[in-house]
Amino acid sequence: MEIDIRSASDIGIAVRAARKAQRLRQDDAAGSIGVSESFLGKLEKGAQSVQWGKLFQVLDGLGVRVIVDVPDEAGELFAGEEVKRYARVGRAEKRRRAREDADES
């Protein structure tokens, strides 16, 4: 089911609904996802300031997908930027492995 998200409050409602649909208590869900119960509570209440990484960790943990509908022109630019980002991440990972290998020697 697709839900139109327009605010932090809407995300909170979606997270709470997904958790409750799985019959999970807040503390159990937080523990299994790897975030604090406090963070999950703030998220469900629609806190205006949350950590993006943890937000997506919770969404993934509850099986919630995020789809962004952008104009076609922006989609084309996004695809190009995404390729560049993955290339940067790949280079950074290669450097990290090289440093670890050098440290082990």
From TrEMBL:
Gene3D superfamilies xref list:
lambda repressor-like DNA-binding domains
Organism of provenance = Caballeronia fortuita
Q: Which PROSITE patterns match?
A: HTH_CROC1 (PS50943)
Pfam families membership: HTH_31
A molecular function (GO) term: DNA binding
Domain HTH cro/C1-type positions: 15-70
Tell me the SUPFAM superfamilies matching this sequence: lambda repressor-like DNA-binding domains (SSF47413)
Coiled-coil annotated spans:
none
What's the name of the protein?
Helix-turn-helix domain-containing protein
